[in-house]
Write a structure and sequence with these properties.
The complex is a heterodimer of chains A (about 140) and B (about 110).
Chain A: E1 5-7, E2 10-14, H1 20-33, H2 38-59, E3 67-74, E4 78-84, H3 111-118, E5 121-127, E6 130-138
Antiparallel strand pairs in A: 1-2, 2-3, 3-4, 4-6, 5-6
Helix pairs in contact in A: 1-2, 2-3
Chain B: E1 2-8, E2 11-20, H1 24-38, E3 43-47, E4 51-54, H2 56-71, E5 75-79, H3 83-91, E6 100-101, H4 104-109
Parallel strand pairs in B: 2-3, 2-4, 3-5, 5-6
Antiparallel strand pairs in B: 1-2
Helix pairs in contact in B: 1-2
Classes of the chains: A alpha+beta (about 140), B alpha/beta (about 110).
Chain lengths: ~140, ~110
């Protein structure tokens, strides 16, 4: 199995949950260096962990030969993080509401709901090459 | 994530530390909760003061622990929930499911 590869503001990992912490270290280091508040870093780190988890499990179906690519794009006013898998996509509009009474005690199904609550916008891009989530958050600096 | 355990008056207090995000680390907490059930230890407090944040995987572990404890006549309670995690519990409405205390002592006392 390949190891994670970092190039500038991009990290590429094999589809193995063991690398979730590696992505978190990468994201947190880049955002800390950029002077972003701890609370905003946590919101983005949680969101990225959700997106990468979905990419590994649902997108790439835990196939370690398939990769997940995470890229950060920063400027003075906002951060965008791109999380791309090599899977066949899903319909984000048919995800059940995890706060409905019948779903409240389910162990899974909160990931995208949490992401939508923590960042300012979530875009989904589907192609033959895979699915890309684009997370955008406006910045408040310390 | 690191996990330590102590006991206060027959109540097991679990103290995870770090981030709970899935992967091998998160199974520590899940496995420990299920080991406690197998050992018939059914009064459990999770002290979250040293957990920086958790994601939906972490929330799922808490829910799984809670429902398994309750199904076996036990209870899992939370103590010292940080602001970030309380926000997630509120967003997901799980704040209505868990008993949540400001101190470990208060959580332990609530079992009496």
């Amino acid at each position: 199995m390949d190891e994670p590869r970092i190039s500038g503001n991009t990290i590429v990992i094999p589809s193995d949950m063991v690398y979730l912490a590696t992505v978190d270290e990468f994201i947190s280091a880049r955002l800390t260096k950029a002077g972003i508040t701890n609370s905003t870093i946590a919101d983005l780190a949680i969101s990225v962990s959700e997106a990468v988890t979905n990419a590994i499990i649902h997108g790439n179906r835990n196939d370690v030969a398939k990769k997940v690519t995470v890229r950060i794009e920063l400027n003075q006013t906002r951060v965008r993080i791109f999380v791309k898998d090599q899977g066949h996509g899903f319909d984000p509009d048919v995800i059940p509401n995890p706060t409905d009474k019948e779903n409240l005690l389910k162990r899974v199904g909160r990931g995208i709901f949490i992401v939508r609550s923590l960042v300012d916008s979530v875009e989904f891009s589907f192609s033959d090459q895979g699915t890309e989530l684009i997370l955008k958050k406006n910045l408040a600096r310390e | 994530m690191k996990l330590t355990q102590r006991e206060v008056a027959e109540v097991v207090v679990l103290e995870p530390k770090g981030k709970i995000m899935g992967g091998p680390d998160a199974t520590l907490l899940h496995d420990r909760l299920h080991e406690l059930i197998n050992q018939n230890r059914k009064k459990v407090v999770i002290d979250l003061a040293k957990v920086e944040w958790m994601n939906s995987t972490g929330l799922g572990i808490l829910i799984s622990g809670l429902t398994t404890m309750r199904n076996n006549g036990g209870e899992l309670k939370l103590a010292r929930v940080t602001e970030k995690i309380e926000s997630l519990l509120t967003i997901t409405k799980l704040i209505t499911v868990f008993e949540n205390y400001d101190s470990v002592e208060a959580a332990v006392e609530s079992f009496k």
